[in-house]
Amino acid sequence: MASQDIIARSATTTPMPSVRQMDDVAKLIDVSKCIGCKACQVACSEWNELRDEVGHNHGVYDNPMDLTAESWTVMRFTEYESDAGNLEWLIRKDGCMHCAEPGCLAACPSPGAIVKYANGIVDFNQDKCIGCGYCITGCPFNIPRISQKDHKAYKCSLCSDRVSVGLEPACVKTCPTGAIVFGSKEDMKEHAAERIVDLKSRGFENAGLYDPQGVGGTHVMYVLHHADRPSLYAGLPDDPGISPMVSLWKGVTKPLALLGMGLVALFGFFHYVRVGPNRVEEDEAPQGDATVHKVDPSVREFDPKSPS
């Protein structure tokens, strides 16, 4: 499980060197066990040395209200009234989903600014980030944020530094209810299947696993009471996918642009072979009799010193 071997880099077509075959890792968040204590938020800030600005009270439990470059995970609270009239409090830990087919990596134009490790974790390298924000456009979950201090993009790294030495992410370590667990993706799916059976036995017929295939699956998964309607959980996308703009750029526009550049270069080469280099001919000096300046006899030269 411990690995920092890279299998994909942004804006790089060079094949990656051979890497060790590693099991995919995953973090499973069981929202039915979450109590909204925000211990995971604090642990994330502590481990990653993040100090966000103190915000304002908006009359809700969400604090901060949104992800920032200094808050890589936030708790989102939603009150939901079912068709039967039952009031439910849906709590979701929001952060990077570490997609198997990351849209941020596909959209990033800076080589190596976004990498994907062999274990599935998607990480940002701020030293190579140019702050263009294309990763935000490419992310179907609206996760990355640009810092106003250094104009670099930031998001949850799934504690790749801890995982690389065999430790679990900080949020997993601190969760007091066991709502967040970590391990191989296969093990997490098996664990989720057991939880789903339990939820269905308690009346949640639509309980299920959130592992959207529109992005090839994710390395952060949810067990939801209402898996048929993920958007109930503070706008979790029902069917996320990579932005059409990114697909257009990477799928059609970029190859066409490269083809156009190649045709221009090829045309220039044949023009040079057939016609040769362009030469600029210097202006030749006039030959023969220069143009005679004829003086009008009616015009006399005037000398102010001579007496009139």
From TrEMBL:
It is found in: Cell membrane. [4Fe-4S] cluster 1 binds at residues 34, 37, 40, 175. InterPro entries: 4Fe4S_Fe-S-bd, 4Fe4S_Fe_S_CS, FDH_Electron_Transfer_Unit, Formate_DH_bsu_Proteobacteria, Formate_DH_C_sf, Formate_DH_Fe-S_su, Formate_DH_TM. Binds 4 [4Fe-4S] clusters per subunit. Residues 282-308 are annotated as: Disordered. Its main location: membrane. Keywords: 4Fe-4S, Cell membrane, Electron transport, Iron, Iron-sulfur, Membrane, Metal-binding, Repeat, Transmembrane, Transport. SUPFAM superfamilies: 4Fe-4S ferredoxins (SSF54862). It comes from the Bacteria. GO terms for molecular function: 4 iron, 4 sulfur cluster binding; metal ion binding. CDD domains: FDH-N. Residues 25-53, 87-119, 120-149 form the 4Fe-4S ferredoxin-type domain. Residues 291-308 have a biased composition (Basic and acidic residues). [4Fe-4S] cluster 4 binds at residues 108, 129, 132, 135. Transmembrane segments: none annotated. PANTHER family: FORMATE DEHYDROGENASE, NITRATE-INDUCIBLE, IRON-SULFUR SUBUNIT. This is Formate dehydrogenase iron-sulfur subunit. It comes from Metapseudomonas resinovorans NBRC 106553. The lineage of its organism: Bacteria, Pseudomonadati, Pseudomonadota, Gammaproteobacteria, Pseudomonadales.
